[in-house]
Amino acid sequence: MSQFVIVKNLTKKYGELTAVDNLSFDVDKNEIFGFLGPNGAGKSTTLSVLTTLSDLNKGDIEVGGYHIHKDKMKIKQLIGMVPQDIAVYENLSALENVKFFASLYGFRGKKLTGAAKEALEFVGLSDRLNMKPKQMSGGMKRRLNIACGIAHEPQLIVMDEPTVGVDAQSREHILNSIRTLRERGATVIYTSHYMNEVEEICDRIAIIDRGQMVACGTKAELVSLVTDVQSVYIETKLSVAFEGAEIKKKLKTLPNVKAVVTEENTVRIDISIEQNSITRILEQFLAFGMPIINIKTEVPNLDTMFLTLTGHELR
Which domains occur in the chain, in start order? Predict the structure, then answer.
């Protein structure tokens, strides 16, 4: 998969304060890339530089083959920004708002109107063309905010907390819209304080703290940084204490099994994440004639990983 965004040794200072310190990462084309950091980590500064809103002190950024030092205007044309703060005009209609932002990218006439209507249809506001933001719910305003950022069909979409303060229905609509944008060929950089959203839609996740990269990878790769064990919970029927003791002893002899704990009708087996031993475990249950009523696996969630890697919570 080709890299669409390449950030190399990015450094950004404000006087004596180093907000971003020699930061490097890349984003693949058509990837949904999660970008996380606690308050003051340098996340917003990085995105500000990436979207050409701020200058950098050192390093380089490449977007779609263009370098920020010599092709800033070309990069600007490739990017759509959906900011955390809703950036729409309260006294303009939904259609007028989207047309205004699309016009900043050179859209005119029928092309402008068509693109604006298509963007509003995409976010589920095609029946609200003439409604003004001051008449809209919070979720509708968020969707209008997205429409304004994507009407010019950007190749890279940067979304900063796009679901803050919205209802569950609007949140699901927004997340599905992001997946559709990726399917249409867009690359997405996504930030959120809702860890479940990041886990759900992001292909890879970067965690920065104090202006530096802490970790970057898939969820599985990040999990491997904080633990090498996953827990498998199997609900069965432990008819007698002897049977439970026998299978416990047998399971402990299997490769990669770290611990076995039985409690009523549930057996918890801790195994190595890198080695898939679940099949062998299930074979042992069948050999003992023990029914498997339910099975689930558990690894640290993103909140736990973030806390372990940075030493503090996201907020």
Answer: 3-223 (3.40.50.300), 228-298 (3.30.70.100)
* Alpha-carbon torsion, ordered 31, 106, 53, 211, to 10 deg: 0
| Spatial distance between the Cα atoms of 240 and 94, rounded to a whole number of angstroms | 67
**pLDDT tens track of the chain, all 315 residues?**
589 999 999 999 999 999 999 999 999 999 999 998 888 889 889 999 999 999 999 999 999 999 999 999 999 999 999 998 899 999 999 999 999 999 999 999 999 999 999 999 999 999 999 999 999 998 899 999 999 999 999 999 999 989 888 888 888 989 999 999 999 999 999 998 888 889 899 999 999 999 999 999 998 888 877 777 778 888 887 655 545 677 778 888 888 888 888 877 888 888 877 666 788 888 888 888 888 889 887 777 777 777 777 776 665
Helices 219-226 + 302-310 axis angle, to 10: 50
Are 99 and 158 contacting, i.e. CB atoms less than 8 angstroms apart? no
- Given a contact cutoff of 8 angstroms between Cβ atoms, the answer to whether 42 and 19 are in contact is yes
- What are the tokens at 242? 């002897």
SS3 of 312, please? coil
CA 240/CA 218 separation, integer angstroms = 42
Continuous segment of H or E residues that includes residue 190: strand 187-191
At residue 154, what is the residue type? P
Q: Kindly compute the dihedral angle of the four CA atoms of residues 175, 181, 185, 189, in this order, to the nearest 10 degrees.
A: -60
Strand partners, 81: 158
| Whether pTM exceeds 0.70 | yes
Closest CA to 309 of 231, 208, 211, 217: 208
Pairing of β 266-272 and β 257-263: antiparallel
Distance, CA of 115 to CA of 98 (rounded, Å): 9
